[in-house]
Amino acid sequence: MSAVIITKDNFQQEVINSDKPVLLDFWAPWCGPCKMVSPIIDEIADEVFTLKVGKINVDEQQELAAEFKVMSIPTLAVVKGGVVVKKSVGAKSKADILDLVAE
């Protein structure tokens, strides 16, 4: 399953009401490190079926970025049952991201 574009309009349905943990990627098109992480996030979305993966463009979704207190990008957040359980800032390897989402 590919990554879902998350907006304030679908946040409740896709993240809060998700029956799976959700990996959120906060990014922006002008962010170099975000461009390095993006293909890794897409791979994880296609490979890890126990997880939902969402991408949030911080330029377009400033309210969500503020709600998650995103100060730097890329920021990755793992949400379970509507609660942020892990958060990571900066570019990460695929192995590090998989460690972040591991139970």
Automatic annotation (TrEMBL):
Presence of keyword Secreted: no
Originating organism: Acetobacterium malicum
Keywords in alphabetical order: Disulfide bond, Electron transport, Redox-active center, Transport
CDD domains from the UniProt entry: TRX_family
Coiled coil: none
Family: Belongs to the thioredoxin family.
Domain Thioredoxin, chain residue ranges per copy: 1-103
A Pfam family that the UniProt record links to this protein: Thioredoxin
UniProt keyword ATP-binding present: no
Record protein name field: Thioredoxin
Signal sequence annotation: none
Origin organism lineage: Bacteria, Bacillati, Bacillota, Clostridia, Eubacteriales
